[in-house]
Amino acid sequence: MSNGSNQLSPASRTMIASALLGGTASAVSQWSQYQSGELAVNDMTTKVLKDAAKAGLAGGVATAVAGQMAGRPVLSLATVLCAGAASLYLIDELMENRNEQNT
């Protein structure tokens, strides 16, 4: 994940940032259920880690593919659109989980 100069590649940095954002969003969406006792800490942790992994993978892969497509505007645009679709899917999944747990 790193190159010879001990610096992270753009895909690695994006993967880390995406995982942090995805995990934070997941934790925020489940926090009220945890506080009310509807969700155990182990279950919440498992969900947060899974969501963080999904977000990190989506962000890292999208950035890696976009980097390979540099100089090809149509393919770069398609990559950005796919990354956006993956992000929307994750957000929808988080919102659906939150709505299911609130009912």
Automatic annotation (TrEMBL):
InterPro entries, alphabetized: MamC
Pfam families: MamC
Domain of life: Bacteria
Transmembrane segments: 74-91
Keywords attached to this entry: Membrane, Transmembrane, Transmembrane helix
Name used for this protein in its record: Uncharacterized protein
Lineage: Bacteria, Pseudomonadati, Pseudomonadota, Gammaproteobacteria, Alteromonadales
